[in-house]
Amino acid sequence: MSAIRVRNEQLILAAASEEFAAKGFDATQTLDIALRAGLPKANLYYYFQSKENLYAKVLLGFVEPLLEASAVLRESDDPMVGLQAYIAARIRIAREHPHIAKVFSGELLLGGRQLPEECRDLLYAEAQRNVECLRSWIERGLLAPVDPEHLMLFIWSATRTYTNLGWQMGCITGRAEPQDEDYQTAAETITRMVLEGVVVAPRVGEIRGVLFAT
Known about the structure:
Elements: H1 3-27, H2 30-37, H3 41-48, H4 51-73, H5 79-96, H6 98-109, H7 117-139, H8 148-159, H9 161-164, H10 166-173, H11 180-198, H12 204-207
């Protein structure tokens, strides 16, 4: 693949992410994407054939970071370490990929109607592995006896706050866009809430000394 093609595809994907994030799929015009990318509209169709294909490519581009974040949950056999790393990784994704995160989250809120089958299969399999990891920790007495599916749903929803509730967060913080310290605080707060809610009683005191880092 030529360097020019790679550059143009990256420009189009970045522009598409911003347009889809701002307007949603239906209201986004391919001409607006091309103008934002600084390329002829014909290039968009040459590289991606259709708006639907481009949208699917944007969604697929967010799956890999999600899978990487998910993998860190299972890298340690200590749930305190694994959960902290998982939460930090998901917050980091929202910080590093704000536009794609918003597009992806918006698609899920609509029921994933245009989510490519490839995305569905990968995310479903990864979700099952994560839930089984939580269930194993619970059965071994490493976590309090909570429902693993709802624990995972809580983590997903809490770490997606800046994507889904950007306007509301701005009302609270007084900032139009979240800053690095906001993401840091979010990671610390969510981690503390999760660990103090699910770590078995003798270990709760250990949480007080945890150093958080995203």
